[in-house]
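Exercise 7 asks you to align residues with tokens for two separate proteins.
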Amino acid sequence: MGLVVAVTTMVLLFLAFGSVVLPLKAVLMNIVSIGASFGAVVWAFQDGHLARLLGFTSTGYLEATQLILMLAILFGLSTDYEVFLLSRVREEWDRTGDNTAAVAGGLARTGRIITSAAALLIVVIGGFATGGITFIKMIGFGMIVSLIVDATIVRALLVPATMRLLGRLNWWAPGVLGRLYSRYGIRESEPEPAPRPALEPVS
């Protein structure tokens, strides 16, 4: 399941941004936030360190189906933030051709929005962690940890720093895939020019 999600994500991100490097980086960065979430869930629920605080009885294990569901949800959220950030970076790259300026401009335009969106989701999902069903508590707690890590450490620090170090390599694709993107890539349509106002007759 994880392999299918990762491959599908990489294909769609390639069609969106025309690079083979950015999709691979996106998957690796998603693993960082998801890994942090899984580690926190094991510590809190499997080991039972937050059993008294959250009001549940630890069973000493986690069901695989629960982790698979968490993986799907968290991967989708992380990829959503990644696409939002990279879309703005790509706009700046197409406009300036300067990778450093594109990364800085993209982060400046999306940083507050990503942080605000994550904070809103944390407040909403926080209700899951206060519910009476342990399975729902675990999903809520894991999503909160993932959102905090993703919006602060991953999107605000690791992604911009990695893209800054990679430079123009961010936008690299081999010749065959470059031609494939040129033909089938997902791009925003060019805005139509605004109609000129009609000239008033001279009296």
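Second protein for Exercise 7:
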Amino acid sequence: MSRHTEYGNSPVGRLISGDPWTKQTTDQNNRPIPEEKQSFWFAVAIEKNAPGMNEMLGLLFKAAQAGYANAPHVMAQINAGLAAAAFSWKVVDGDEMRANPTSGQQELRWKHGAGCWIAKFSTTLPIASAKYHGAVPTYCDPSEIKRGYYVTVPFSTSANGNQDHTAGVYLNPQTICLVGYGPEIVGGPTLEQQLGAGPGAYMPAGMTKTPQAPGGAPQPGPAQGGAPQPAPVPSGMPGPAPAPSGMPVGNGHGTTQPPPSSPGGATASPSNYGGYMAPPAGGGMPGA
């Protein structure tokens, strides 16, 4: 097999799974991965009709052809395109369904993948993070790129050299670049799912609805109009001096601006991809 590498940029897609900056230490069956084989892994959902999707798939196809030109049995799989049953393109169908392991109901295999191809990137090397300032890309802190945000990924691809059912291509990211925002995807149940509508009306002894001063007495709350109430004056002590004539009493109350809203999520499912690597009717997708 000859090693041939192609380079490109992915179309803009949504980061929906994995972590570009934390290496995987266990496999899908929770078995430890040897340290020398641990890699960074993440998945991006790209709309099937996104500009540049055909070109990206073409680069994968070109790298596969060059790598397996002298392996007819693998070339048979490559020529089947995304319908290949024994070739890993690192691209899977976001509309694929599966049975929920608990309920048995049919559901999307990729929760946020409807209408998209799912590109699965991995590498053993650290991945750079970037964003745009106007039209100029600059490096940024990885914490600025969250699951649910929209990114583009410069990548390289080449054949993996395997001759059995694990034959396929690598899809190695070089940089992940933030280009837009969507609803953040977080793991686990939401706060509303965890806590419900509230704790109810019950108040244990000693509990108050406002913070308490040292010693247990409630701290003074705000007066009508937002100005804080003066602290109580101990018996026998003079009260606070009155404000000079014409001066306002108490502190003014300011306002806060709500955080900017994020753009909405992914658009409605586009029509099926019609490029030359599209699977025929009823065709399958490559393996993992």
